């Protein structure tokens, strides 16, 4: 779990505000009710008792660390406090002295694959554009182990990234989410949506609180500006465990994509998206050993999600890999 991966992206006005105003922000805000963080700790305990992941629990966008210690209360897990602003991390020892501190962006998590036993992000993904969140949640999926509990709180509405109308810390930017799109993005990122509550933020705008579990599947690697979106039928268990679609030796997808010049790195969907605008998703997110283990209704529900994803992110082309799924979901006479 490297702690030296500070963000290297371009200027971030929200981060600049928190770097300059961390102490004043802490003084102007009340520490949150610890009950939600303790409830999350209960989910961590339950997952561990059931034989689930045992890695550390991350407080993503921890701020001064008000909730960090409570997230692991009554567990043997170590807390990790992550924030993009070093000035916020400097305040964490005053509230969670035992927590490890990591400075990093939510868009580039510096954790080993499957190393986290849980992740808690309260009003932190709100500082990313909606269209950047699918890939950020793919990073979270990669960092968490199957069965890990996850909780997110975002703002309700439909705003890509903009300042609040009234903000006592001007310069910050926020996104707001329609509930239906948030559900699609969480599912597409490879998490089972256990519960979604509304109105759970303090003050306007209202919040959407997601309780989810990291599934044994693949996350979407999608974003704005895609020239091509590749849609597989569903992940194989082999690919889900490898963390890459079409991963099995002998599968022709990646050799063909390399030969065609669509991508330049073998079995690297993140690079395919960032360097070449090639996104990847699956019609059905549930991983199976064989495609014939899927129900036709799963295909139909999955195609509806793909339609909404395409209408939102508008890739130039969509390529469906798998005739059986197309027949089950769209046209049973397709050849």
List the helices and strands and how they pair.
Elements: H1 13-28, H2 35-49, E1 57-60, E2 79-83, H3 86-89, E3 100-103, E4 118-122, H4 133-143, E5 149-155, E6 159-162, E7 174-176, H5 179-188, E8 191-198, E9 207-214, E10 228-232, H6 237-242, H7 253-260, H8 269-276, E11 278-282, H9 296-313, E12 317-321, H10 323-329
Parallel strand pairs: 1-2, 1-4, 2-3, 4-5, 10-11, 10-12
Antiparallel strand pairs: 5-9, 6-7, 8-9
Helix pairs in contact: 9-10
Features:
alpha/beta; 12 strands; three-stranded parallel sheet; 10 helices; 335 residues; 31% helix
Question: Can you describe what's shown?
Answer:
This protein is an alpha/beta fold. 31% of the residues lie in helices and 19% in strands. It contains 10 helices and 12 strands. It has helices at 13-28, 35-49, 86-89, 133-143, 179-188, 237-242, 253-260, 269-276, 296-313, 323-329; strands at 57-60, 79-83, 100-103, 118-122, 149-155, 159-162, 174-176, 191-198, 207-214, 228-232, 278-282, 317-321. Strands 3-2-1-4-5-9-8 form a 7-stranded mixed β-sheet, with helices on both faces. It has a 3-stranded parallel β-sheet with strand order 11-10-12. It has a two-stranded antiparallel ribbon with strand order 6-7. The longest helix is centred in the last third of the chain and has 18 residues, at 296-313. The chain is globular, with a radius of gyration of 20 Å. Mean pLDDT is 93; it is low at 1-9.
Can you summarize this structure?
With 335 residues, this protein is of the alpha/beta class. The chain has 10 helices and 12 strands.
> What order do the strands of the largest sheet run in, or round the barrel if closed?
3-2-1-4-5-9-8
Record field, number of beta strands: 12
Distance between the termini: 48 Å
Residue-averaged pLDDT, rounded?
93
Number of helical regions: 10
Principal-axes geometry comes out as: globular
- The assigned structural class equals alpha/beta
**Stretches with pLDDT under 50, minimum 5 residues:** 1-9
Question: Largest sheet, if any?
Answer: 7 strands, mixed
Strand content: 15-25%
Rg, please? 20 Å
Helix and strand run: HHEEHEEHEEEHEEEHHHEHEH
Helix content: 25-40%
């Amino acid at each position: 779990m490297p702690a030296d991966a500070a963000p290297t992206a371009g200027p971030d006005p929200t981060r600049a505000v928190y770097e300059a105003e961390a102490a004043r922000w802490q003084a102007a805000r009340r520490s949150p009710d610890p009950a939600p963080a303790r409830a999350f700790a209960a989910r961590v305990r339950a997952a561990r008792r059931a034989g689930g992941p045992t890695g550390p629990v991350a407080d993503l966008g921890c701020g001064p660390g008000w909730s960090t210690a409570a997230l692991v209360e009554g567990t043997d897990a170590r807390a990790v406090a992550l924030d993009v602003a070093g000035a916020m991390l400097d305040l964490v020892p005053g509230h969670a002295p035992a927590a490890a501190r990591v400075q990093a962006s939510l868009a580039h998590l510096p954790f080993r694959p499957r190393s986290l036993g849980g992740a808690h992000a309260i009003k932190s993904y709100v500082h990313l554009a909606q269209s950047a969140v699918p890939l950020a949640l793919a990073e979270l999926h990669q960092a968490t182990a199957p069965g890990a509990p996850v909780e997110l709180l975002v703002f309700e509405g439909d705003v890509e990234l903009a300042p609040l109308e009234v903000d006592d810390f001007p310069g910050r930017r926020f996104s707001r989410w329609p509930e239906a799109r948030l559900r699609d993005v969480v599912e597409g990122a490879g998490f089972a949506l256990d519960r979604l509550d509304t109105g759970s933020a303090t003050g306007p705008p209202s919040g959407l609180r997601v309780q989810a579990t990291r599934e044994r599947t693949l996350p979407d690697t999608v974003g704005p500006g895609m020239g091509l979106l590749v849609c597989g039928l569903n992940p194989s268990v082999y690919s889900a465990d490898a963390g890459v679609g079409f991963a099995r030796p002998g599968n022709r997808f990646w050799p063909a994509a390399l030969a065609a010049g669509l991508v330049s790195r073998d079995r690297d969907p993140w690079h395919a998206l960032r360097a070449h605008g090639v996104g990847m998703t699956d019609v059905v997110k549930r991983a199976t050993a064989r495609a014939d283990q899927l129900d036709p209704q799963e295909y139909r529900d999955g195609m509806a999600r793909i339609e909404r994803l395409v209408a939102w992110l508008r890739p130039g082309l969509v390529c469906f890999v798998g005739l059986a799924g197309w027949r089950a979901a769209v046209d049973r006479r397709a050849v």
